[in-house]
Amino acid sequence: MSKTLVGNRSTVRDVMQAIDKNSGMPCIIINDNGIFVDIITDGDIRRAILRGTEIEDKIGRVISYKLDKEKRNKVIAYVDTPRHQLKTLMNEHDIKHIPILDNSHKFSHLATQEYIEESSKLSCALIMAGGLGTRLKPLTDHLPKPMLPVKGKPLLEKIIEQLSVQGVTKIFISTFYKSGKITNHFGDGSKFGVSISYLQEERLTGTAGALLLMPSINSPILVLNGDVCTTLNFKYMMEFHNEHQADMTVGTYQFAHQIEYGILETEGYEVIGITEKPLLKYSVNTGIYILSPTCFELLPDNFDAPKLFHMTDLLELAILKELKVLDFPIYESWLDIGNMDDYETAQL
User: Fold this and answer.
1) How many angstroms separate the CA atoms of 7 and 292, rounded?
2) Cα dist from 113 to 28, 97, 197, whole Å
3) Which terminus of the chain faces fewer neighbouring Cβ atoms within 10 Å, N or C?
4) Is the pLDDT of residue 138 over 80?
5) Are 46 and 131 in contact (CB under 8 A)?
6) Cα separation of 8 and 59, whole Å?
7) Does residue 16 sit in the same domain as residue 42?
8) How far is residue 308's CA from residue 27's CA, in Å, rounded to a whole number?
9) Closest C-alpha among 312, 338, 347 to residue 226
10) Exposed, middle or buried, 268 (CB in 10 Å: 0-12/13-18/19+)?
11) For 266-314, what is each residue's pLDDT tens digit?
């Protein structure tokens, strides 16, 4: 039995010693069948002792004191519980640890604040802002698309502010078309609470072209188009990526289309079924990605060839090389400003 697991027949002294050997970390109390009973901290024991518990008493007395006197019910979660939900539980109950149980109610591992923060840590992002914005002419005759105003502020500025609020400190921006409009507005990023470096493309190389200009990375990075409006908390996406040990995570958004007619299912000339006015659902690529360093190993040595290299090419290559590519469904608002109708919608 590990030093974090202690049987429920143990004495208070036994648990105190286990906590001490585990550098002050809480002990998990289990029964004879290995089923989780409770979590005990050093503070739990000290409060119980102040109320008359003896160190040779069974640990059950401390557990009873927690439930009966302090009215503190045990807080648990199960494997696959998203870490942002664990964080919410910790905040609601003002605790620093949550036991994670499997489906048999046996202890799996201990979630700590550090464990949660590390999984969703998002410090670096790449915004792709070099496109021509042809479908938004004449608005883009004098401004690159990411600099078009949305509700009185450049879209790219909104994205950078959103990233800054969510903890991103380092941002790379790929530029090509009218790049001076972007660099002059944002400078080194200090006015916006971030550090900005620019990846200046000499010619259009495709949406993934700027990746070749990136310095080497040793941790996952958020990559997103510079024309995306979303209320997504990108930390959730990074958490999902890390929890599943993915190489690439693609943000997706679901659309639904109501067919106005009955759809026949046939085999040759024979009708074998009919579905009346089905609702077709499909997921689209949002232009938001998390890339692990393994994805950068798939990039070509250069983009001298006339053929463009897009993020969709990188996605297909990752699948071909059997990397772990995951779908992250976005339920928050999302809009890709690709045409005039989208741009008008973004102003609402």
Assistant:
1) 41
2) 17, 7, 31
3) C
4) yes
5) no
6) 6
7) yes
8) 56
9) 338
10) exposed
11) 998 999 999 998 888 888 999 999 999 999 999 887 666 567 888 999 9
Structure token pair of residue 213: 């200009």
Residue 162, class by beta-carbon neighbours within 10 Å (0-12 exposed, 13-18 middle, 19+ buried)?
A: middle
d(CA 66, CA 69): 6
- What are the contacts of 147-150 at 24+ separation with CB within 8 A? 147/178, 147/181, 147/182, 147/185, 148/337, 148/343, 150/229, 150/337, 150/346, 150/347
Question: Are residue 65 and residue 136 in the same domain, yes or no?
Answer: no
Take residue 131 and report the two structure tokens written for it.
Answer: 């496109």
230 CB burial (10 A radius; 0-12, 13-18, 19+): buried
Whole domain around residue 194: which residue ranges? 120-346
307: CB partners within 8 A, 6+ apart: none
Which amino acid, one-letter code, is at 324? K
| Statement to judge: residues 220 and 268 lie in one domain | yes
Q: What stretches of the chain adopt beta strand conformation (E)?
A: 5-7, 27-30, 36-40, 77-78, 97-101, 107-112, 124-128, 149-150, 153-154, 170-175, 195-200, 221-225, 228-230, 248-258, 263-267, 270-275, 279-291, 325-329, 334-336
Question: Do 64 and 171 belong to one domain?
Answer: no
Radius of gyration of the chain (CA): 27
